[in-house]
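Hi everyone,

Forwarding the result from last night's run.
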Amino acid sequence: MPSLFEKVTPQHAPLADSLRPKTIEEVIGQAHVLSDGHMLKNILEGGAPVSMVFWGPPGCGKTTLARIIAHNSGYEFEQVSAVASGVAELKAIFERARARRQDGKQTLVFVDEIHRFNRSQQDAFLPVVEDGTITLIGATTENPSFEMNGALLSRMQVIVLQRLGPDALEQLLLRAENHTGKKLPLEPQAREILIGMADGDGRALLNFCEILFSYKGKKNLDAQSLTQYLQKRAPLYDKRQEAHYNLISALHKSLRGSDVQAALYWLCRMLDGGEDPLYIARRLVRFAVEDIGLADPNALLQANAAKEAYDFLGSPEGELALVQLTIYLATAPKSNAAYMAYGAAKRAAKEHGSLMPPMHILNAPTKLMQELGYSKGYAYDHQAEDAFSGQNYFPDDMKREAFYTPVERGFEREIIKRLEYWEKLREKRNG
């Protein structure tokens, strides 16, 4: 039987396969998990493998690392794809692993896109992982805490891999050129553009290289001609998966941090990725009341107006309304005082239970209720001096509490003055 890395592919194998790293020294872009003292480094150098999940974007080396682990540890390597495999195929793999185990041979099972297995398929791994029949390595582009069975995940180590940075991708370009003996037909700026087009995906970059090595033009491609020659990859974004939540979080926090430039970038990343603009508008309306509030009461009006404008215009014309709103919200004064007041008042409402309002602020529509003291002593504020009576409106058995504390920003500065004025009047009129 040939070794794991023995050349069994056709003569014209894809460049990504030909250049797949075979040793730990050839792996690039994952220094954070390949440094001395890290568990993965020890395993890659021949330590006993453990079941684990490689979580990272496409083309960052998940399959490569699994193959190197199997080779260096002497384990038999079985690879399956969760997209194309079912329970029957898994059972056959487990039977082969049991047979090898009887002969003193261990098996490493690598499952690509393991998050695509449903819960019952993932459950099938539990007994064979627990009893040591196999060592399982899964690869996923999705957050495993969301997509994987908790029982299975608890028996595995999670290794987070990173997208390949510009330096790592440049190393791949040099390897491709050395391997083929050809120089990429690119001007320096076009070379930088090519790295950006790969979007951190080493496999995609090498696929681009294969296309470019067949270029027959007489002049090297500049930035503009490169984008015409290659079709740019779709952004790495799935509006139903984790990227959806990561990007809306980035947009929300950039707005909260009053960074208008970053907010516009994340907005456009979401729009470019195909996000529903009305979902973005909904989150921007929420931001207006959660993070700006009464520091700028006009923020909510602007947010609703932008939503209505998009509803009326649609894409792409209506997207400018979201851009305008993003700029407005990012540059508005910020306050979460209303948000905090809501939380504090909710806690008080739960803590104090079903306390009745004080009798003097209850309506008395019947004679019996009047006789029982309903509405007795109520002071009509408009008849009081300064239209302020200073009466107590909390339950009789509850001390007065302060839930809302405005900030010294924007319109809430004026609210602070009003609250302080009314508090002085309240103290004066209640002795």
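Residues 240 and 384 are 57 Å apart (CA to CA).

Cheers,
N.
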